[in-house]
Amino acid sequence: MKKRTKLILTGVAVVALSAAGAGTALSSDDDDGTEVPITGVELERASRAALEHTGGGTVTETEVDDEESYYEVEVRKPDGSSVDIQLDEQFNVVDSTPDDDGAEDDD
Q1: Does residue 58 lie in a domain region?
Q2: When comparing pLDDT for 59 and 28, which is higher?
Q3: Which residue has the higher pLDDT, 49 or 100?
Q4: 103 lies in a domain?
Q5: Packing angle, helices 3-21 and 40-54, rounded to 10
């Protein structure tokens, strides 16, 4: 197994165990109370797919049945930027867009 793949899988395992240990899935900024975080095996698979796509980072938020795709995974990349990864029901990446929801204005 490649070193990069081992690192990604280790990161996914840490995220999944942390979420399970806290008794919850990864949270989201749910403004209207309708967002449902990804849980269980689906969380592991979605996290793995998103981290493979970004080349690493940390999963910070997840959502099932997002308005843009079946799953959405937000990843904070090592450079500090965030990206929203859209996945279909088979965990294939269907879109990837920078996430600037939390960006601060310097104005």
Answers
A1: yes
A2: 59
A3: 49
A4: no
A5: 140
